[in-house]
Amino acid sequence: MGFMNEDPVLTSCIDQFAQQSLVFTNAISSCPVCSPYRASLLTGRYPTSNGVNTNDVQLPAAEVTIAEVLKQAGYDTGYIGKWHLDGGPRNGFTPPGRRQGFNFWYANECFHNHFELFYYRDTAEPITGHGWQPDHETNIVIDYIKTHRKDKPFALFLSWGAPHTLEGVTRPDPSGNLWHYGAPERFEALYKGKPLPRRPNVPDNYAEEDLPGYFGSITSLDENFGRLLACLDEQGLTENTIVVLTSDHGEMMGSHRRMTKAIWYEESIGIPFLIRYPGHVKAGRENLIFSDVDVMPSLLGLMGLPIPKAVEGTDFSRAMRGELVTKPESALIEVFALGRLNASWGWRGIRTPRYTYVVYVGNEDREEVLYDNVTDPYQMNPKYAQKGKYPLDAALWQELKRWLEKTNDPWVTEKKV
Fold first, then answer.
1. Cβ-proximal residues to 113 (8 Å cutoff; 6+ apart), any chain
2. C-beta of residue 105 within 8 angstroms of C-beta of residue 79
3. Which residues contact 365 (CB under 8 A, 6 or more apart)?
4. CA distance 387 to 364
């Protein structure tokens, strides 16, 4: 986002929104992978509890989502865009009985050809066509807001797929790079042929050909976000509507010679979290570590609604109101081996206000790594433990172990750590 002054991306609408919002500068995705994040966002619970520890796993029906709480409180609930929580084929139909509390539905399980349309409503007959998905999905939301009965509160989730990597689209790429990003030409043109400063941890020219498509996608989202905010203004809803802008994970985009997500680096776990609620949420910056599991309880707390007892996240609604709160000493970050339901693989770590500490376990290997994010903000100088000599830092290790025990992680019960 432009206002963060980290990347040369144009986001004028988001930049203006940030001036009206509370911006959590240390917001993180605790499990920076699509399905696990979404399950934690909706339930306020970690993957070891809600069962969604990798992509393409169905969120159990017994899990209580924020949509179900809001529906019980009298809200109409709607979901538009990418769902990725039904566990079936990515082009599959999610019937009304498996929508976890959402009654208005215009969604797909997972469809990343962003230049084509593929959605379901309440029948198994898909809605198809051509067009840029963010434009189309935003149109659906605007139409919903304009036609919704004025005496009934609503809660909408709009889940744009872009700027995810394109799937099912052939794009010329002389470098042979396997990762492809794209946006409508008028957005890519804003970046093509122009010097685009890179982060210090990106090797020279690495994945440079992807920048116009990636940044262009974000600028397209910025335009559509502006359209949504204008609709709220036109309908007289701005003063009584909570608006949140966030994401399921970041994008490495060449940092440390990596692409996409699912790794512990800041570019992967770092996400935006901006919230505006005029007269209730104090605009400004907040540096407490705010995780995806904290979203559900914080929003419910802000609305004065009951928080389900099973929720594992923290209610930070007081911080949103500008009150002093005790800030967390750390947050759990983790990825379970992608494509495997064996939760004993992968990596686990903690993110503190200063450090990122991670333990990785593979077939035969165990590795510990520590980053000082104050003296080494781009995480270019990791400190590794010598093989067989751990913990690297006793205090950080004990803090991670506390998290693993709290979340009943198999690493503890199976003595992987």
1. 166, 167, 168, 169
2. yes
3. none
4. 12
What pLDDT digit, counting tens, does each position of 296-355 carry? Answer: 999 999 999 999 999 999 999 999 999 999 999 999 999 987 544 455 578 999 999 999
Is residue 351 within 8 Å of 28, Cβ to Cβ?
Answer: yes
Return the active site residues.
34, 84
* 0.90 surpassed by pTM: yes
* CB-based contact 147:78 (threshold 8 Å): no
Instruction: Report yes or no: 304 and 36 within 8 Å, Cβ to Cβ.
Output: no
- The whole-angstrom separation of Cα 317 and Cα 24 is 12
Contacts of 21 (CB under 8 A, 6+ apart): 243, 245, 274, 275, 276, 281, 283
Which tokens go with 358? 């991670």
Question: What is the layout of strands, in order, in the sheet containing 366-372?
Answer: 331-335, 346-351, 355-361, 366-372, 383-384
* Residue tagged 């339930």 (tokens): 43
State the CB neighbour count (10 A cutoff) for residue 374. Answer: 9
Residue 76 DSSP SS3: strand
Q: How far apart are CA 272 and CA 160, in angstroms?
A: 14
Q: Please report the domains of the chain, with CATH numbers, ordered by start residue.
A: 2-320 (3.40.720.10), 331-413 (3.30.1120.10)
Region of 184 (left: φ > 0; alpha: ψ -120 to 50; beta: rest) is beta
